[in-house]
Write a structure and sequence with these properties.
It comes from Candidatus Falkowbacteria bacterium RIFOXYA2_FULL_38_12. The chain has one domain (2-114). With 134 residues, the chain is mainly beta. It contains two helices and 13 strands.
C-alpha cells in the first residue's frame, strides 16, 4: 500500500495533522491523510490513513487502508488492509479485510476479519455504533 506509492514517487497526501495539532470533533476527508498529532471524536477518510509514531487518536476511525505506528483508542473500520508497526497500540475493536501485525504491536480489543472487506463510507457509522453497543 504505502511502499508501492513511495516507489512510484511522492504519495498524494491531501491532509496532514502535524505533531503540534490537536483536532477535536468530527474530522473527515476524501483523500489520503497523515496524522502526527492528536485527534478526538471521529476520524474518517475514503482513502489511506497513516498514523505516525507520536500520534494519539481517541476516536472511532474509518479508512480504506491504514498504516499505524501510533496509538488509537476507539473502534476501527478499515475497508481493505491495516498494518500495525511494532510501536502501534490499538485499544478498541478492529474490523478489516487484511491485518498485518509486527511483533511488539499491541491490540487490546476484538478483531473481525472478512474476505469481502469492510465499507468505510459515511453510511456505515450507524452500523458501527450498533456494533459498539453489543
Amino acid at each position: 500500500m504505502f511502499k508501492e506509492q513511495n516507489q512510484k514517487g511522492v504519495e498524494e497526501i491531501e491532509t496532514i495533522i502535524g505533531p503540534s495539532v490537536n483536532v477535536e470533533g468530527d474530522f473527515s476527508s476524501k483523500g489520503n491523510m497523515t496524522v502526527q498529532g492528536s485527534v478526538s471524536g471521529t476520524l474518517k477518510t475514503e482513502r489511506d490513513l497513516k498514523i505516525g509514531v507520536d500520534a494519539k487518536i481517541t476516536a472511532d476511525v474509518w479508512a480504506a487502508n491504514a498504516f499505524v505506528a501510533g496509538e488509537i483508542r476507539g473502534n476501527v473500520r478499515i475497508g481493505e488492509r491495516m498494518e500495525l508497526t511494532e510501536t502501534a497500540k490499538i485499544f478498541g475493536d478492529i474490523e478489516v479485510k487484511t491485518l498485518i501485525m509486527a511483533p511488539g504491536a499491541i491490540l487490546n480489543g476484538r478483531c473481525t476479519m472478512s474476505h469481502e472487506g469492510v465499507s468505510s463510507r459515511e453510511g456505515d457509522e450507524d452500523n458501527l455504533k450498533k456494533d459498539i453497543k453489543k
